[in-house]
Fold each of these.
Amino acid sequence: MLPQHPPFLRWSACTDIGRVRTNNEDSFLGLLLDANEVSYLGKFGDAFDASKNYLFALSDGMGGAMAGEFASRIAVEKITRLLPKYLIHLAKDDSWSLPKTTHSVLEVLFSLFHDIHRELLLLSASYQECHGMGTTLTLCWVRAEQVYFAHIGDSRLYHLPTTGGIIQLSEDDTHVGWLLRQGMITEYQSKHHPRRNLLQKVLGADHQFVTPQVGSVIYHSGDRFLLCSDGVTDQLFNHQLLELLSESTLESPAAHLVHRAVDRSGNDNTTAIVLEFCEGSD
């Protein structure tokens, strides 16, 4: 029997200001983590090394003037600066290693979100132009055979398993999202509800406490994951996301999805990150 090779990871990311907004309040991030350093990834690429980890994040800011753009940038920048301090230090060479259990990974993500929240509150209290600013944050940490995630707000994380279908892993932190999860409204009704954009939980925005959603899912060859801001899902239904990501195109999957979403709506900044776990080879 031939040995099985782990799938390699392919990613793509794209953002668009849309057709209405004058500035882009979305931010995204890709990082490569190993036992010694954190390094940035480009908008697209592919690689897989079982000794390394990959982290992707997307944030959608809110606030007056440029505060929303500032908040989303702070969120992704703080991930790079804060993450190493949570990782286990090795006694001999003072480098850091990666968490070894699911529980420890989720603890790291939980702490990371809380520290970013505190930083946003501090800036909001210190500068008038930052008062009330906040941001969503949706994050994936790819390691071993699992994708660990953390989330707050109404940006979304989807799992598209190789067996078919599309599963929303993140829960929208809105009353409309709660109504949809309870089966009290349909997906169509949720897109036209007058309160669909009113967030109940974000980082910052003068909220005293935050409780991010954290979890993990095992991935397999052929699986895909989508992180996206609400500009993507404004007028695209889940089944349309699946169809668009299944289409063959010269564009990257993320760019194809973003451009189609802007064509369909364009009322908001529009950002997507697509992760694909492709069949490994010799």
Amino acid sequence: MTESVLKVQGLCRHFNDGDRLVDVLKNVDLHVARAETVAIIGSSGSGKSTLLHCLGLLDRPNAGEIFIQGVAVSSLGETARSELRNKNLGFVYQFHHLLGEFDALDNVAMPLIVRGLSLAVARAQAEPLLQAMGLESRASHFPGQLSGGERQRVALARALVTKPICVLADEPTGNLDRETAQQVFELIANVRDQFGTALVLVTHDLALASKADRQLTMVDGHLAPLSADQVPNDSTQQTHLGR
């Protein structure tokens, strides 16, 4: 098996609900290889977003271990966790979370500016990502001047500008129509091939999930492969992201 860029072993996460302990993640195992696309589906409240937050080092599990590029996360302090997250992970959400007072180019450049790069250098590194998304002509437009699909493509470019090993996406096409969602997924395929970036995708959309290299389902806190009869098998499979 190809070496994992992101690996999870025995992950558990619970929350207190008054006097009751609620187990959200139950002994979850996961590995994601370089340039692999993994889709995770499941009903609301099944633990998908909690898992993604743990993978993104935005939440701490109660038990288990997360490895990023072979580094065990549990032993790291907050500064080291932040540095590891900033260096290796990118994030895309259902709602783009772009900064309305900045144009598309500066929104993409923002993670590099936060790292301490000069504005000129950050913009120079952001421009090729906008071009890859077909948005070079929209670089000076503000989020309010962009369509929903364009905003999400800017968000994807922003997630990639730091050259992460893995992008974590929480319902990235959930606010888009079918045609635009398809376009965003095709861009994700191109990004994977061009940059070798892995993708962990949480989605309710089985048709889109079917285009990933692997499909997993989260049920009652457990993660398992999606059965073959649950994966759509129609003409959309012709654009499968797997190579």
Amino acid sequence: MRRADATRLVALAALWGASFLFMRIAAPVLGPFIVADARILLAAAALGLYFRWMRFDTGWRRWWRVYTLVGVINTGLPFLLYAYAALHIPAGLSAVANATAPMWGTLLAATVLRERLSNARLAGLALGILGVALVTRPQPGAAYPLLAVAAALGGAFCYAVAGIYLKRRAHEAPGRGMAFGTQLAAGILLVPFAAASQPLAPVTPLALSATIAMALLSGAVAYVLYFRLIADIGPIRALTVTYLIPVFGVLFGAVFLGEALGPSTLAGGLLVVLGTALVLRK
């Protein structure tokens, strides 16, 4: 891997890891629906302007049904679930839960696509389950709501379901068009729910800034970096970003929000990363 590719990979992991920090700041103020819809629509608008400037055809007329379905499963629902989780659990915990997406994908591939599970992948699943159990175990003086933890894990499960669908039904859809079309469709579908919602606390400049940063940096810029990596180093190597996201998520939560880094958090996060590495092996 060239130095420029490695730099893009680390930058992408930092941007996606920062999204959990931004959600933890914005969601308790604006509420899950407003945060999820705002980040999606702003990212879609930025990508739309960028692709228009690049004169790239997103293929909306041909692929709008796929964009809509994948947008619900891969964007709208998981972003909403993570925004809800951010009301109750640390950013680092959400980032670790997000890293279980390849493990859910492996389980679905085995049950839906009838793919064989190697010993390495089985070991990865076991490590991932143990890691999540360690990270989510009640800490002294703090217990995480089970519904919030389930929401974060549910968001990762949504990514896995979308991956299986894309592999079977929509592998010919253009990647960059998918990045824009799914966000546009999901954002439009969430508008009625966001419009009917109210902020949970007085709106602050920090909450608004976090939402905008999440949309533009963790959304639009991150997608451009991701598809550049896929073009340069291939989709398999690009997936290694999954190992780094929880590292940045936990780090940002500790540095900017003062989230505790107990032994169980560090050990559990490490097990999830190792498990992810094993299930992504070919």
